[in-house]
Structures are given as structure tokens and as C-alpha cells.
Fold:
Amino acid sequence: MRPGRFDRSLRWYPASWRARYGDELVALMEDTYGPRGMPTVRGRLGMIRAGMAEQVRELAGGHEPTPGDRSRAGALLVLCGWAFFVVAGAAYAKFAEHWDVVTPRGARRLPAASYVAVQWGAGIGALAVAAGVATVLPAFVRFVRGGGWAEVRRPVLRAVIVSTVTAAGTVGLVLWAHRSGSGHGNSGSPLGHAVGILWAVSVLATIFVTTWSARAVTRRLAFSSAVLRMLGPLAIVLTLAMVTVMVGTLVWWAALAGDSSRFLAGGDTGLFSTPAGLTLTVSGILMAVGLAVACWGSSLIVGFGTRRRVL
Structure:
């Protein structure tokens, strides 16, 4: 595709789509806006919306996906859903610290069981992700040895840089919290709020950049049918782990709302103060979005398995 002044508008579309239709879209925009004109704000927003729709369609296997494409796309969608869960789970875990201290002894059984279910679900999900990484690692090594590093260098380095910066910031934040002489790191001060928010943003960026980089790399790898058969069950296990986490969180929330409403009314989450309602609501929304994406991905995998059995 030829370079030009419309490159910024086209970058929202997948590379494969740009290679196939980019010149046609550029020619259409040149006819529409003239030799020096540029799209209006409304036009750019429309292109962003259309480009993101193509990204989602490609993530789901494209317009005419093969069974292997559906299985790969399904696993990637489940991984994207897990990214939402990691963010929500981190917020929930920080908020739920010491819930049992303010909960009457006789009312701890149900929230304790649901809290343990959340921990087990998170642990199983992490193991499923680790197993998935181990499964695709040989294909990645072969790809790099075959000269493919240049194709994936940018997303890999981007993920490494963002992760390194976040890790360094986390270490610095922990040291600052200890030196402040407060277990909460001066969470109620304006500085504590600002530092905590910056840290949260960096964690969000790390999770999503890493997930998006994994998507970009995985799409270029050649997987055998055996690998695809392994990734499918792992993705479904990960989806079930998300269901466990979400159900456990909702049960825990409902149990405390009835017996320990004073705890839910609190605002101190540790590193910085956040209203309880906002923390739990945002966590719930992120979990719901992540689970919906994961279920979409699992449906592609189940469809792939059903088709294989029929054939």
C-alpha cells in the first residue's frame, strides 16, 4: 500500500486488511477530500469505528476462517478476556483485604467460602495461562530461528519495556510506602492519591499492551493440529476459572452487603483511597466484559471441536 497523508486514518485497520483494501480506500478518500483535504472529525471517528470492527472481525478469525483459525482466534479472545479479569481481580483483591476483621464470626462462613473460590479460580486461571504459554513457546522459538524476529520485534519490545517500567515503579512505590512509616503509604494524602492512580494506570497499560503483543505474535506463528487441540481445552478451562471468580466475587459481595455493610462503606483500599462502590462496580463491569469476551472465544473453540467430530 502506498504511503500518504491518510496513513493515520488507516492505522486503525488490521495490516492484512490494509494490504488488500488500503489503496482502494485511499483512492476513495482522495476523490472525496481532494488533493490536500483531510477527513473531518466525524469522518475520522467513523474510520476508527470501522477499523476497530475489522480488528475484532480479524481477531475472531476473519471473514472466512478455517477451523484452525477459529480455534486460534478463540484462544486469543479468551486471553483478552483474562486481561480484563486480571485488572478487576487486582482491584478486588486489594479492596477485600482484611474483610474478616470487621465481619462477625458467625457470618464469615459464606463470604470465606466465596473468597476461597475466587482464589482457586484465579490460581487455576494463572496455571492455564502458563500452560498455554508453554504450549506455544516451541512454535515461537522456531519462528524466531527461522528469521521471523523482525516481524515481532516491535510488539515484543513494547511489552518488555512497559512491563519493566511498571515493575520498577511498583518496587519504588513499595519502598516509598515503607519509608512513609504507614502501611498504607499515606493513601489519604493528595500525593498518595496521585501516585496510586499513576501506578494503577501503569498496571492497566502493562496488562493490555502485553496481551495485545501476545495477540500480534501468536497470529504469526504456525501451530500444528496437536497444539491447537491443546490450546482449546486450556482456553475453556480459563473461561471456567473466570466464571468461578465472578460468581465467587458476587456471592462475597452479597454476603458482606447483608452482614458487614460497614466494611463495604469504607474507602481505604491500601495504596490509595477509592470509594467502595466505585471499586466494586468497576471491578464487576470489567469482569462482565472479560467473561463475555472469553465466552465468545470459547464458543469459537467449541464450534471448531464440533466440526472436527462431524468431519
Summary: The chain has nine helices and no strands. The longest helix spans residues 109-179. Residues 1-58 form one domain.
